[in-house]
Every structure is written in C-alpha cells, then in structure tokens.
C-alpha cells in the first residue's frame, strides 16, 4: 500500500544542504509491522514525516494506495492524513489543558464527524487502551505510559489504515514500553499497517520486518540481523 | 455551527493559557481604538451631511452690492434687506428664505417669570428647504408680517406642559402672539444654514417668527451685522428695510443644473443693472455656495479636530503595531499546537477558521473596551470643548463604522501571526 520510488529529501538552509534521505526504495504491504532502525540523525523521523505527508520531498515519488501524493492540494493532503494515517510521537503531544476525551476527539472533529459518533469512537479507543474510566482526566494526571496509550487511542480513533510511530517508547520505562508494544501488536493484528521507529533491538525483532537507515539510505536490515532472516 | 463553537472554545482555552499577554494585547488595541473612536465621533458628526440628498441643491447667494468701493473684496457674509429682496425677485428658485436670529423672552402672562429664548426670524420656505418636521398646526401661508409664532416641541412642552398648543396665546417680549404650529423634534447637525455666522455647532432655535414681524418689532440680529453708514439701525422697522444694514442670511433651492445656471445669470444681470444705476461701485463678485461646501467656504472647519484626527490615527497605528507584536509572540508560543492539529489532519483552511474565531473573540473584547475608553474620551472632550458637545454622540451608522474598524484591526493583528503559525514547518515542532 506504501511505495517509495527513488525518493530523496534535502534540507536546505542558507549555509548547508543536508541530504536527509537518499534514493529510498521501499514497499510496505497492507497489514505489515515494520520497524525502522538506525543511528541518530540518519533520517528516520524525516522518512516517517514524509510518509505522513508532513514533509515534502525533493525527488522520486511516493504512492499511497497506488496514488501519487505529489501535487495534491493542502486540503487533500490534510484529508488523507486525517483519514488514512495515525501519528504517535515520542513526546506524546497531547494538549495539556484538554481532557483525554477532547484530545482523542480532535482529529475526528476536523473530519466533521457528529458529536455522538465522536464520543462513541473516543470511548471505544479509550476502552482499547484500558483507560475508559479516565476520559475526563487531563494528561498531566496520567503516567507517561498512560499518556502514550492516550496518544495511541487518539491515533486509532479515526480508524486509520497506517500508524506511524516515532520512537513511541523512547520516553518510557521498560514495563510501560512493553505495555505500549503489546498494544501496538494488538492493533496490528486487527489489520492496521504500522511503521515504527525504534532504538530497542528487542522491539525491532518483535516487528514483522526490520528496515535500517544509515545516513539517509536504506540498508537491508537482514544483513545485520540473522534472526530476522530465519523468521522470514 | 457546532464546529464554530468548538473553535471559540479552543480560542478561549488558549487565552486562558496565557491570560496576561492577551489582556495586554486587548488593552493596547482598545486604547488605540478608544482614542481613535473618541476623535472619530466628533470628526464624523462635524463633517456629516444633514441633508445628503439636498445639500447640493441649496445655495447661499452673495453679492458685492455694497455702497462703498471695495477692491478684491469677498462679498459680505450677511446681506441687507434690500439685497435679499432683489435676489428674491425671480421665480427661478424652487424655494427661498431670508432669515436671521435674535434673542427674546417668552412667558404666558405678565405674572410669570420670563424665559429667555433664541428666535429664528424667517420666511415660510425655510421649513420646506431644510425639511423641518411639523408636529401640530401649519406654517404661515405667506411672507407677510403676522403675530404668529411657531414653537419647537421642547419649548411648547416647557411653556405649556404639552405639545399640542396650536391656537394658544403667548407673550414674546410681552407682545401678544398666537401659536400656529409646533415643530417635531428637530436638530439639524451640523446646522449648516447658520454657517455664515459660525453657528453650525449650535442647538436649534426655540421660537420661529415671520421675517417682516421681526423687522416691524425692531429685532436686531444676535449674530453678526454690519452697516455702511451712520443711520441708527435700532429703528429697524423704519430704516432697516431700505438702508445698508447687512444682517440677513439668504438661501435658495435650485434643483437642476439649468436652474443653477439661470440663477447665476440672474445674479450677474442684477449686479450689472445695479451698478449701471449707480447703486454700488465695486467690480462684481458673485458667489453661489452650495450648502455642501458652506463650512469650508466660510473657513469654519475646526483645525483642532483635524490635527487631532491625524494624531489619533497615528496613535492607532502604533497600538496596532504593538498589539500585533504581542499577538505574534502568542501565536509562536502556540505554534506547537497548530502543528499538532495539522499533523492530525486539520487543513490550513480549518486553521484559518480557527483564526476567525480568534478574531471574533478579540474584536468582541476590543469593542467593549474600546467603546468604554471612547465613551470616557468623548465625555472628556465634551467637558473641555463644550461648544462641540452636540457632536459627541453616537448614532447607528457611526457605531457600525466603529464595529467595522474594530474587526479590521483585530483581523490585522491576528492575520500575520496566524499565517506564520499555520504555514510553519510541521515536523520540527512535534519533535522533542
Ligand atoms: N527541518 C530541518 N532542517 C534542516 N535539517 C534537518 C531538519 N530536520 C532534520 N534535519 C536533518 O536531517 C537529518 C535527519 O534527521 P532526522 O530524520 O530527524 O534523524 P533521526 O530521526 O534519524 O534522528 C539530520 O542530519 C538532521 O539534522
Ligand atoms: Mg528522530
């Protein structure tokens, strides 16, 4: 469903050009769980942002469901983000002075979903992440792991087909990280395609497939991880 | 609608996050708007056109028909009785009236204490030309002298305790008059028919008397008058109609271009004939000033108000600049939230709607605060310049105008910062 063809991304500032992504070729099929690994500054976040249409690219093409995102208008891209893609960030990015319910309803509002339906979906999503009883809480009243679960609820409330997670467990201790990981696996089993950036080799191994980026280029993760070969 | 209420709620929550900078923004903008409004009120009222459909059809004719030789002179701004007669002797105007104002004392009987009143001594066409509304009775049928008065509504109510007093007797300077009509509430603002005397800022007169009666009873003008000889013009009834006592205002209504052209021609013929007859020595200088330009013709524009208008406009500009600077800081500190909303699928259009909600809230606050400050300013100005106090008033048009200004400034203050925020880079903000 995701196809990157010879995709390149250059950040230009007055002084320097950074080749954040170089000639990326990547195909991700419906229902896959892909772990993106690589050293810091290698372009993982940039790749995820390009996939999420938060960032434009300079060369190549990006096909989503067979359709190029090049030349789509801002409103078409927003609609695509809103309906097909869910984001999970390392820093949770919840709005502090909104209740959990309001945080989760936020993307649904921009889709113009009616209040009762929004409420139903938000409750369902909170149920799934095990926080149904706290929907009127504010994020600051929750632990980090709980906050990340709210962020996941927000990402899946819109029933996206792709979940993009940028180091979702980076700020969490190992117990909480495991809970989040289990949740993501569950969501993946329900049919959602997931691309996740991670530094944790254990987590990467639990994903169905590993992709490594070094210096903006994809390298075959299999070469570095014989276990993955066995599994595949 | 639900969505818009949500946008308002989002604006409100973000205000609550940092109420102090927001309050400061509102205060600065309101201060600029309030000071601007206060001055704009006077400017608007002083420059408003009381009869917009007619102000280019009513004219104030003047000629240099005076006994003395005068080179490069402007014609006198008040006219003599004879000259008004001569300028009236034509059918070209649709209406015409000579007039002046005087002081008098009103009472119902000689036991009562007299009430000072201002009298407009005029001819029937006055009421027609300036569209004076009539409440009871009827205007004098012709220009002849008669012991009949027309009262303003407040005067009737003050003297009799009611307004329908047609047929009642009243004493004006202890002479018996009959009330033949009562005007409805009327205040021409500015009172342009009195601009030659600089009286455009004054209140409407209280009592109206026929011109001929005024001359018969020796009422002298309480505004300006000049003479060109040594006749004792206190004997207005015997000398005033023939000599060169200039104290009258004269207005004609010329509805069409053709009428105006014809009347100009009539004036120059008249002046030429008079000169031939040896009644005045000066070279002709005829003026036919439309009511629309009358204040500027007589140099009656208030320079204070004009200078002040410029200053307050500059002040508003400075406040606008400062407020938008503050507002930019606010948006930049909220940029993270904008980016988050974009990432979660809000389009730029939806963020701009959010911005409109911000504008609406800001405009509402600024409107309330700005009008309060303006109200204080107007009260202060009325206190400092009582002469202008009739003009320190708000009407619906002015309020709507002020509303538009408030929205525009609030929009300007919000526009640039919010554009910056909604076009900012997306990924940068969301990374920790
Ligand atoms: N907005 C930006 N402007 C300029 N350079 C950037 C920007 N974002 C990322 N980069 C550069 O692109 C490279 C890849 O960054 P990133 O994708 O954030 O790496 P990672 O997530 O793998 O740590 C880095 O060298 C970074 O400095
Ligand atoms: Mg990163």
Structural commentary:
The complex is a heterodimer of chains A (232) and B (432). Chain A has a single domain (30-56, 71-219), classed as 3-Layer(aba) Sandwich (Rossmann fold), CATH 3.40.50.300. In chain A, 37% of the residues lie in helices and 26% in strands. Chain A has helices at residues 44-51, 74-84, 100-110, 115-128, 144-157, 174-189, 201-206, 226-231; strands spanning 2-12, 17-28, 33-37, 59-64, 67-68, 85-88, 162-166, 193-197, 209-214, 217-220. In chain A, the strands form 2 sheets. Chain A has a 6-stranded mixed beta sheet with strand order 6-7-8-3-9-10, with helices on both faces. Chain A is globular and about 45 Å long. Chain B has 432 residues and is α+β, with helices and mostly antiparallel strands. Chain B folds into 2 domains: 2-47 and 302-431, no CATH class; 58-297, no CATH class. Chain B contains 14 helices and 12 strands. Chain B has helices at residues 2-17, 19-46, 81-88, 125-129, 153-160, 211-216, 236-240, 257-276, 294-297, 303-333, 335-343, 348-384, 396-423, 427-430; strands at residues 58-62, 79-80, 95-107, 115-122, 134-137, 148-151, 169-172, 175-183, 207-210, 226-227, 245-253, 287-290. In chain B, helix 10 runs parallel beside helix 13. Chain A binds chain B through residues 45-46, 49, 52, 54-55, 74-75, 78-79, 81-83, 87, 89-91, 93, 95, 97-98, 106-107, 109-112, 115, 154, 158, 166, 171, and chain B through 2-3, 6, 13, 16-17, 336-337, 340-350, 426-427, 430-432. The structure holds adenosine-5'-diphosphate and magnesium ion. Residues 11, 13, 18, 20, 38, 40-46 of chain A line the site of adenosine-5'-diphosphate (ADP).
